[in-house]
Amino acid sequence: MTRSISGFPVFFRLLAGVAGLTVLAGCQSSAGMVKITPTPRTLIYSYVIASGMARGQVMSGQVSRERLVQIVNADRAALTAILNAEYNPSGAGLKNAGQAMENFLAVIEPTDPTPPSVVRR
Question: What is the structure's pLDDT at 73?
């Protein structure tokens, strides 16, 4: 019988390798298995980010009056729904706040799908 060079028996090295692969395999999950449940705090963080995006669009000077009214109305609806979910937590309130955030994001989504880094000719 030959001894391994490292002095650590081959069986234990193989066992450590299999255990490592098992741990890494546990990190894998299918897309349908990952579920993120919104909380009032995550909705507030999302709102702050979306509000900054809306502010950037307004500051660019490229927003028409009609679009500005849409942004302001969607902003108010999202903030109101999130604050209601924060102070009166319920499943329906969180769902309503999540939907209001989705509506707000849909309103502030850029109208031009071409990224600004693309050179137009």
Answer: 94
* Look-up of token digits 């509000």: 51
Sequence letter at residue 7? G
pTM for the full predicted model: 0.60
pLDDT digits (tens, 9 = 90+) for 34-90: 566 777 788 888 899 999 989 988 888 888 899 999 999 999 999 999 999 888 888
Number of neighbours of residue 113 by Cβ within 10 angstroms = 6
Half-sphere exposure of residue 15, counting CA atoms within 13 Å on the CB side? 5
Burial 62-99 (b: 16+ CB within 10 A, else e): ebeeeeeeebeebbebbbebbbbbbeeeeeebbebbbe
Q: In sequence order, what are the residues at sequence separation of 6 or more whose Cβ sits closer than 8 angstroms to the Cβ of residue 47?
A: 78, 79, 82, 101, 104
User: 78 is written with which tokens?
Assistant: 């999202």
Residues 6+ apart with CB under 8 A from 80: 100
